[in-house]
Amino acid sequence: MVNNKQKIVILGAGFGGITAALKLARLIKKYQEYEVVLVDKNYYHLFTPALYEISAIPKEEAHGFKLKSAIVIPVEDIIYGREIKFIQGEIIGLDKIRRAVVVKNAGAVPFEYLLVALGSETNYFNIPGLKENSYPLKGFRDALRIRNKIEALLEQNRPITIVVGGAGSTGIEVIAELSNFICSLQKKLVKNHALCQVRLLVVEASPEIMPGFDNWSIGLVRKRLAKLGIETKTNFTVANVTSQEITGKDNTRLAYDIFIWTGGVTGLSLFKTLGLPLTPKETLAVNQYLEVEPRVFAIGDNAGFINPATGKLLIWNVPVAEAEAKVAVRNIIREISGRKKTAFRPSRKYPFVLTVGKKYAVADLVILRLSGFIGWIIKILVELNYLRKILPLKKAIAHWLRAVKLYRSND
Fold first, then answer.
1. Mean pLDDT of all residues in the chain?
2. CB atoms within 10 A of CB 235
3. What are the beta bridge partners of residue 362?
4. Which Pfam families does this UniProt record tie to the protein (predicted)?
5. pTM of this prediction?
6. Angle between helices 169-189 and 215-227 (to 10 degrees)
7. 106 pLDDT higher than 80
8. What are the angstrom distances between the C-alpha of 38 and each of 18, 91, 325?
9. Are 360 and 330 in contact (CB under 8 A)?
10. What angle do CA 352, 387, 378 make, to 5 degrees?
11. How far is residue 282's CA from residue 123's CA, in Å, rounded to a whole number?
12. Helix or strand run (H / E) with residue 161
């Protein structure tokens, strides 16, 4: 039987894409002539806030499959029982004339409406040697590569230096989590090893760590890093990277054994080939309705939305992606029903939870601020709440328990 339904195609199964697909599937039921199609190159939804945990869990504690099951959620589990069609395949182009997305091994997927939620990729800022000599942290394989490299270094029984580039939320969480296990692991790997010979350093180009965060959060994180023995170096702009040394713009040189780069993201290289308007950061330029052009919307990391209150690009994080997803879906439904679209109005402040090592987190819920162990409890409850929204309750709890067990293995 030929399917003549008009397609609303969502590209990307990240936080924004999944939120949009689930909301759209609920609202589109009254419009039987439409169907929701979700496309992603992976079969899974990656719970990216837990990636830093994977990079800091020893092999003896968990093998790759066990690790993956804690942060990877099959898309089929999420869409089961919902009217969402899933196509697994890499997006390789956009046919604007035929209004179709070109998917590797799936051909052209026509659309009436398109919502792009493909996320971002690591930005190396054209710094010589940076891409070749650093380790990014954008996917599951990245996290495993970092973990395996660090274990190999520890087995050499010599002093090592681990440098993280970028003191934003990801960089802070990575360096703090590494401090949890690295010295104890070195003692296990090297017999008769009494002293920890690991230097942990995070460098940041801005005058302060955690650019964009408030003084309350920065102060707590600074104290916590000091307690964990982690050094910070601000006003350090990376100018060149070799296999053993990082050179700053001020000619300061830092020797290292592994350099983890979390210093920025940019739009996908794919976007340059789509014929859509881009921002200077090479993300998709959107208007107040989150439209790139008529009937094409973008949300999350790949959307360059100018915040009317500041005149600057809106910061990228999970709460923003989810909020944008809801507005974009609402506008698609409004346009289908012949109503006026509504502008996306960002909140003045979004909640966040930042983990800083062993069972410690800084949590700003907008109406309440917490830190320490209670902040960590908030973190795992926030994760459970998210899983509950996208999965059947039993599966949500099972996945959450696997993740918590994994987190505890590094504590």
1. 93
2. 14
3. 354, 371
4. Pyr_redox_2
5. 0.94
6. 10
7. yes
8. 8, 12, 14
9. no
10. 40
11. 10
12. strand 160-165
Q: Phi-psi bin for 38: left (phi > 0), alpha (psi -120 to 50), beta?
A: beta
Q: How far apart are alpha carbons 103 and 376 in whole angstroms?
A: 40
Residue 353: helix, strand or coil by DSSP?
A: strand
- According to DSSP, the β-strands at 245-248 and 253-255 are antiparallel
**Measuring CA to CA, which residue among 55, 263, 256 is closest to residue 163?**
256
Q: What angle do CA 394, 388, 58 make, to 5 degrees?
A: 80
**Closest to 28 (Cα-Cα) out of 291, 330, 295:** 330
Instruction: Give residue 290's pLDDT.
Output: 99
Question: Structural domains in the chain?
Answer: 6-41+89-120+267-349 (3.50.50.60), 130-264 (3.50.50.60), 352-385+394-409 (no CATH)
Specify whether the CB–CB gap between 409 and 358 falls below 8 A: no
- Closest by CA to 72, choosing from 54, 47, 52, 51, is 47
For residue 53, what pLDDT band results from cuts at 50, 70 and 90? confident
Name the nearest CA neighbour of 89 among 107, 103, 75.
103
**What CA–CA distance (Å, rounded) separates 298 from 114?**
8
Lowest-pLDDT range of 53-57, 145-149, 229-233, 337-341: 53-57
Q: What tens digit of pLDDT does each residue of 159-202 get?
A: 999 999 999 999 999 999 998 778 777 777 666 655 678 999 99
Q: Using pLDDT thresholds of 50, 70 and 90, give the confidence band for residue 403.
A: confident
> In this structure, are residues 39 and 89 in contact, taking their beta carbons and an 8 Å threshold?
yes
Token couple for 250: 């001020």
pLDDT at 249 over 60: yes
pLDDT for the residue 65: 63
> Is 289:303 a contact under the CB 8 Å cutoff?
no
